[in-house]
Amino acid sequence: MFKTMPDARYDTKDPSGGGNLGDLPEWNLDDLYPGENSTEIKADLAWLKDETDSFAADYEGKLNDINAADFLNCIQRYEVIEGKMGRIMSFAGLRYYQNTTDADRAKFMSDMQGAVTDLSNPLVFYTLEINRIDDEKLAAMIAGNTDLARYKPILDRLRAMKPYQLSDELEKFLHDKSVVGASAWNRLFDETMAGLTFDVDGEETSLEATLNLLSDTDRARRETGAKALTKVFTKNLPLFARITNTLAKEKEITDRWRNLPTAQMSRHLSNHVEPEVVQALRDAVVAAYPKLSHRYYALKAKWMGLEKLEIWDRNAPLPDDDDIKIGWHEARDIVLDAYGDFHPDLAALAAPFFENGWIDAEVKPGKAPGAFAHPTVAAVHPYVMLNYLGKQRDVMTLAHELGHGVHQVLAAKQGDLLADTPLTLAETASVFGEMLTFQKLLDGAKDQATRKRLLAGKVEDMINTVVRQIAFYDFECRLHAARREGEQTPDQINAIWMEIQHESLGDGFNFMEGYESFWTYIPHFIHSPFYVYAYAFGDGLVNALYAVYAEGDPDFQDKYFDMLKAGGSKHHSELLKPFGLDASDPKFWDKGLSMISGMIDELEAMEG
Considering the entire predicted model, what is its pTM? Predict the structure, then answer.
């Protein structure tokens, strides 16, 4: 449910300062519920108990013989139920992520998760029976009822799992035990991570603050931060290996019972994307490693006067970086101006996030790391979480998450079932918002040195979004394949991680002792296996989209808004067609990667 950004966005608060950033906003969750003991939550839970029982009584065992009008009513009732459950879990989850170490918030989150799981038990038949409806009968109902036809994309996605569906009894069993299975291990990971502290020159710092040191201007501080991280990650390696092994084995068992051919296939099905499209993306990025990451990091080593970079230099600022902090209000103006230059409506859609308590920006003890935009439910609005430090990257993260937020606002008109965008397209508006903001900053660069810093920062972000995330995807593919052969020791998992790091980063790095444990803190491996390729997919797609925009398509803005409004109601091929783009064409990905390569060309040219 909750999506955190990749580790490239874990730019967190410098414990030595940040007070000059202005008043950082925090969430007002009243639009969901006024409190955890509110009568509104109790009323919704009571309504759900009555409605889920009534829904099962009305439809269980009857969907195979249902008519179109009754089937439409069934889907619409299910949508209302989903909305109520989503509202409860959004409220519980957002409160929890504000402070994951607060025992009361954790208990409330767990209690609501258990309650919603129990309440949804009577609904397990819904998907199972839809998948048993005869193809011809379903096609005839959809053809004869326009309102029902609107839900065809949802039905198509549900029925994509039809070949892998288990018996009703087994599906209900898996649903029932989920709260003590993956969910419990996910919670253990979150609470362990939130509770870790790191010794930095005698001071105990949080994960966020210590990761932030990896982009400090002081190289000695970066080294101190990196070594503090490795010490704690290595100490906790057995626990993280146990969590990873258990979740991978649980997935292997489920996948085997479902006859899914690969560990990643379930992600492709949920993303509504063909495996060959993802493979084309992966192959294009891996083939481009030498002209992207390998070439850029060699250039960065030259700038820093080093023969090879240490791993703590990967996200280091350039030697002439002025390390200026950008205050919150200035960041807001930069992003809204960039959005407004594209179209006034885009800025108008983003403005309420700043005005109405829809953003939580300050770093606080126990707060989840990274950043995300959570859509909640169609009847409310999204909420954005940041850990704002005032760096240029933080401004880009703000632009990114607001892109998600605007996308979610526009897609909400589709309703709770159709608003949710597949992961392959979920990063479109976010990365496009980043690109608009970057181009505005680049156009306003006052001198060549500023332009160089901006270009280098953007290249590093793109490498983190494309190269690093595809490397993560390869790590997961190899890890899950190895786990099918047996439990993986910490050393074996470490070895897979290092093999991937050498491939993706090239020969320009020295890998310090202990870096092999850095896989342990990536939340996507735990919460959402194989999610990571969506970032590379989104970046490549947006680079191609932006090229169309830069070429001056007069109808681009209208087409863009139509794409965002569609939410999950259309396949990626249908959404890209108006722009003349096709993600199944390998050349599509090369076009996006060429934009990154072109920026590195410009940086090399600046060297004379």
Answer: 0.80
Whether the Cβ atoms of residue 562 and residue 503 lie closer than 8 Å to each other? no
Strands 359-360 and 383-385: parallel
Alpha helices in 566-606 (DSSP H): 572-576, 586-605
> Between the CA of residue 246 and those of 26, 187, 189, 238, what are the distances in Å?
36, 14, 12, 12
Closest CA to 399 of 333, 472, 315: 333
Set out the domains of the chain in order of their start, with CATH numbers: 25-180 (1.20.140.70)
Question: Which pLDDT band holds residue 421 (cuts at 50, 70, 90)?
Answer: confident
Tokens of 573: 């091929």
Cα 282 vs. chain centroid, distance in angstroms?
A: 18
N-to-C CA span, the chain: 49
Residues 6+ apart with CB under 8 A from 606: 448, 452
Distance, in Å, from the CA atom of 572 to the CA atom of 327, rounded to the nearest integer, reads: 37
**Nearest partner of 6 among 378, 511, 527, judged by Cα:** 527
What residue type is 568 in one-letter code?
Answer: G
Q: At what angle do helices 275-288 and 586-605 cross, to 10 degrees?
A: 20
H helical segments located in 515-555: 524-527, 533-550
pLDDT bracket for residue 160 (50, 70, 90): confident
d(CA 195, CA 521): 12
Q: How far is CA 290 from CA 278, 287, 294, 501, in A?
A: 20, 7, 5, 13
Contact of 424 with 393, CB cutoff 8 Å:
no
